[in-house]
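Please annotate the following for my students:
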Amino acid sequence: MRGFVLSRLKTAWPCVPGHEWVGKVVRVGDAVQAFKGGDIGAVGCMVDSCGICYSCLKGEEQYCESESGMLATYNGTLNPTGQNTYGG
């Protein structure tokens, strides 16, 4: 990642540098129903937007109107667990 210094961001490690990524699901836990091994998954640079407000429905989740709003993938706090987002 030329020209980008993660140490300046107070990044919580481990971290997956970059924004959008794609991968193949290797395995899932017993409680997971939406995905299975072999599925292809992708993550954008924003997560946890509501998906139902006017902005989200227009494809502009960066302007999510929900109480929690959208969440950036670096050093964000996932709702409701409080887990760090660790990049993506």
User: Anything to note?
Assistant: The chain has a mean pLDDT of 77. The helical segments are 54-57. The first helix runs from residue 54 to 57.
